[in-house]
Every structure is written in structure tokens, then in C-alpha cells.
Design brief:
- With about 220 residues, this protein is an alpha+beta fold.
- It contains two helices and eight strands.
- The longest helix has about 80 residues, at about 150-225.
- It holds the Pfam family EMP24_GP25L.
- Keywords: Endoplasmic reticulum, Membrane, Signal, Transmembrane, Transmembrane helix.
- It is a single-pass type I membrane protein.
Length: about 220
């Protein structure tokens, strides 16, 4: 079975998933979007193998300030990465055997919840290499085709890497689009609010001016009589 991203069942879990949805698919490229309430912290665990690579990218899509604290801890509990109140980040670490924990902390905010997107890319996890070796063993015994299996394998790996990179870029573009749309909607609501405030102020000022002019003319009439 491939690598899994497991949600903890302790006090850090805010959104409990339904049975069967507590882990990602066995692919080596996974992404997830969740809502982090104000004043709360949520952590995730990712099992890793020795001499593998863990790349994690996150973005705050919505919420006041578009910022969050990020922690990445090794299986020994050592802090590998700490980002304080950032809107996005990309981190790559060489791993060892064990469960890596990464947390998103919104305890500094008492009002605003945050919508967070993150993506995991796992390299050198061993499964692809084993499948490739098995495939190579099955075909090595035949001499029907005069070609180098290494060249074919290299071409397949190159195509696979480019396709994976394309999928990653498209996922990031969707995340950027979601964040930009949230910013535009927030600006739109803000512009409408202050436009209504300015309109109300103009109406009040106009009414006061009319009242003042009317009172000036009434004082003159009274003084003449």
C-alpha cells in the first residue's frame, strides 16, 4: 500500500471525516483543502521512508490577513520548519523512517477562520522503482526486439515526471485562482460598504445644509416683524 496522510484523532482534529475518508489515495502527489477555525490548531501525519523526499507547499486561500503559522516536525519531534504568520510556503526535506507531523496554527486569530490549501509530493518512496524492476525482469528474457530497455525506461520516467509537474502546476494555479477570487469578492464587499457609508454621509450633509439655510431665512423674517 502506498504512502498515506493520516489525520490525528486527538484534540487537534477539528473536522472529523467520515469512515473511509481519513486518508489520501495511494498516489505520491496529494492535495487537500480545509477550513481552520479561529483560535485553533490542526496537525497531520505523513509516514515516510529513509532517503526519500517530502515536498510540502501550502497557501492560505481565504481569511483576514491571509496568514497562518506552520510547523514541520521530524519523527524525533525536532522542528524542521517554522513559518510565522505567512500566506504561503514551499519546503522540501530529506526524510528518514517514521511519521512526519506538520501543523497549521491559527491560535493568534480570535475572530477570522482560514481556508488553507496544501499539497504533498513524495519522491523515492520505493514503490515505483520496484515496479520498474519487475517490469524489466519480465521483458529482459526476450530477444524479439533489438532495443535498450534502459532507454525506454528513461523516456517513460521523463514523460511521467513532466506529466506530474503539469498536474502540480495546474493544481497550484487553481489554488491561486481561488485565493484571488476570494480577495476580489472581499474588496467588492468593502467597496460597496464604504460607498453606502459615503452616500449616507452625503444625504445627511445635504439635509443639514437645507435645514441651516431654511433656518437663516426664518430668522430674518422674524427680525423684520
Amino acid at each position: 500500500m502506498g504512502p498515506r496522510l493520516l489525520l490525528p484523532l486527538g484534540c487537534f482534529v477539528l473536522l472529523l471525516p467520515l469512515p473511509g475518508t481519513a486518508e489520501f489515495s495511494p498516489s505520491l502527489d496529494s492535495d487537500f483543502t480545509f477550513t481552520l477555525p479561529a483560535g485553533r490548531k490542526e496537525c497531520f501525519y505523513q509516514p515516510m521512508r529513509k532517503e526519500a523526499s517530502l515536498e510540502l507547499e501550502y497557501q492560505v486561500l481565504d481569511g483576514a490577513g491571509l496568514d497562518v503559522d506552520f510547523h514541520l516536525l521530524s519523527p524525533k519531534g525536532e522542528t524542521l520548519v517554522f513559518d510565522e504568520r505567512k500566506s504561503d510556503g514551499v519546503h522540501t526535506v530529506e526524510t528518514e523512517d517514521g511519521d512526519y507531523m506538520f501543523c497549521f496554527d491559527n491560535t493568534f486569530s480570535t475572530i477570522s477562520e482560514k481556508v488553507i490549501f496544501f499539497e504533498l509530493i513524495l519522491d523515492n518512496m520505493g514503490e515505483d522503482g520496484e515496479d520498474q524492476e519487475d517490469w524489466k525482469k519480465d521483458v529482459t528474457g526476450t530477444d524479439l526486439l533489438d532495443m535498450k530497455l534502459e532507454d525506454i525506461l528513461e523516456s517513460i520516467n521523463s514523460v511521467k515526471a513532466r506529466l506530474s509537474k503539469s498536474v502540480q502546476i495546474q493544481t497550484l494555479l487553481r489554488a491561486f485562482e481561488a485565493r484571488d477570487r476570494n480577495i476580489q469578492e472581499s474588496n467588492f464587499d468593502r467597496v460597496n460598504f464604504w460607498s453606502m457609508v459615503n452616500l449616507g454621509v452625503m444625504v445627511v450633509v445635504s439635509a443639514v445644509q437645507v435645514y441651516m439655510l431654511k433656518s437663516l431665512f426664518e430668522d430674518k423674517r422674524k427680525s423684520r416683524t
